[in-house]
Amino acid sequence: MTQSHPPRQQRADSVAAPRRFPLRESVIFLALLAAVLVVYAAMGSAYGTRMLVEAACYAILALGLTIQWGYAGQFNAGVMGFVALGGFCAMFFSIPVNEAFWSSELPGELGLALLYMVAAIVLVVAVSRLDRIGVPKPLRTFITVVLGVVLYMAVISNFREVAGQIESRVDFIGGLALPAWFGWIIGGALAGGVGYFIGHVCLGLRSDYLAIATIGIAEIIKSFLKNADWLTRGTATVSPLPWPVPGPGDVGFTLARALYLSVTAVIIAAIFFLLHRAYNAPWGRMIRAIRDNEVSAAAMGKDINKRRLEIFVLGCILMGIGGAVLASFNSLFDPQGYLPLNHTFLVLVMVILGGPGNNLGTIFGAVVVYIIWLMSEPLALFLMQLAVDIGSATFGWDAPTNLDSRALQARVFVIGLLISLVLRFAPKGMLPEKVRHHG
Questions:
Q1: Based on the number of CB atoms within 10 Å of its own CB, is 299 exposed (0-12), middle (13-18) or buried (19 or more)?
Q2: Four-point Cα dihedral 320, 29, 429, 281, nearest 10
Q3: Which of 117, 115, 106 is nearest to 165 (CA)?
Q4: Which of 231, 286, 333, 376 allows an S-S link to 91, with CB 3.0 to 4.6 Å?
């Protein structure tokens, strides 16, 4: 009997190819390290550490966006809304309890108003299903609309009366005095829950319509938080928010920020490990297959809508966590401070620069873009002042009085120039996604 041997090509494929030394990645990260050291030397250790903490918070947001856009091709243009939800939870669960509110009859009245609201929603949903028991659809729609309008007017009138009493008597309901990290977890859960609701409605839309829908939803969330004075104090803001580590008043600015940085580093390491495992697992390959060819994935029996919803919710959870961590570090909750430029467009630039779908590249892009965003203002101010000094000494120019505001606007120009250069010379990012082919 002759012994069969595997084909030569099969034997060759079974041997793992030698892994190359990551020269490109090493050079890029060494350059990033040099930039961080320059910031530390020029601005001081307290400023540099603060910059790294905020960049780490933005890295969590960028990881949430890169798994939506990079893994599944879902363009979420409403990152700001999920960041705001995380910030709200960080505030609500960590600030001290408002004894004036809880010692009054207002909690019972608020709970009753919320119960009426839930009952009205359940009743309207039930009426919208009347066609299942034989009611004609036009009549069902008419009854649902009329009932919804009547119940909305009744419920909102009662709710506004209770909210007005809270604002006039106790300012706002206060917090729950729980650890800061608990608010971070709930912030991620709340953002994921809202993302689940949005996904059911919007994930069937085309990518451009999905972007428009998420922008609108983000603005709705911001508007609610800004106008719900009974819950968030609105534009009056809430501060200070407690930290999960000793604050600057206990150990000094530099050490406190270094401790906070260590917490964010642990969070990023855990998220990176889980996402890396998921990306290389069969689940990750299935997600990428849906992204690259949805028709073929559906033909292979994959549940497209379920998987797209999973990835959208997961990304929203990370955005909520990142928003909560950022709000706690700033020690301030200001609903009016959430801006599309700072909390959506900047995150998008980070993902584009690093490389959509590449977790390590996303972290790199977050740190690089935030350094450029933060340092372009003082650098622009320095160059403007230098030009004014030279012009005054040489040509007798009059120095403008608004150099500070002009320097602040310069960073928008710098970010716009950066994204243009990246899209022109590195459209897949500085660290493009590396897809391993199996089989």
A1: exposed
A2: -60
A3: 106
A4: 333
Length, in residues, of the chain: 439
Dihedral sign, Cα of residue 176, residue 179, residue 183, residue 186: negative
CA distances to 45, 61, 155, 162, 240 from 113, in Å = 50, 35, 7, 8, 30
d(CA 201, CA 224): 20
- What per-residue confidence (pLDDT) applies to 437? 56
pTM of the model: 0.90
Contact of 310 with 48, CB cutoff 8 Å? no
Instruction: Give the integer Cα–Cα distance in Å for 347 and 373.
Output: 11
Phi-psi region of 391 (alpha: psi -120 to 50; beta: other; left: phi over 0): alpha
With 50 as the cut, is the pLDDT of residue 35 above it?
yes
Please name the residues in contact with 45: beta carbons below 8 A apart, sequence gap of 6 or more: 254
Our CA angle for 280, 285, 290, nearest 5°, is 150
Q: pLDDT value at position 10?
A: 47
Tens digit of pLDDT for each residue in 278-309?
988 888 888 888 888 877 888 887 888 888 89
Query: Worst-scoring range by mean pLDDT, 60-74, 207-221, 363-377?
Result: 207-221
Show Cβ contacts of residue 127 under 8 Å, excluding neighbours closer than 6 positions.
Answer: 140, 143, 144, 147
Cβ–Cβ under 8 Å, residues 187 and 194? no
Of the candidates 36, 67, 81, 33, the one whose C-alpha atom is nearest the C-alpha of residue 54 is 36
How do residues 169-214 score in pLDDT, each as one tens digit? 999 999 999 999 999 999 999 999 999 998 888 877 667 788 888 9
Spatial separation of the C-alpha atoms in residues 351 and 315, rounded to whole Å: 13
Cα separation, 177 vs 220, in Å, equals 27
Q: Which residues contact 266 (CB under 8 A, 6 or more apart)?
A: none
Phi, psi of 334 (to 5 degrees): -130, 100
For residue 80, count other CB atoms closer than 10 A to its CB. 27
Q: Which residues, at least 6 apart from 271, have a Cβ–Cβ distance to it below 8 Å?
A: 60, 63, 318
Check whether 6 has a pLDDT greater than 60: no
Q: Residue 97 carries which DSSP code?
A: B
Quote helix, strand, coil % in the chain, to nearest 5.
Answer: 80, 0, 20
In the prediction, which pLDDT does 18 show? 56
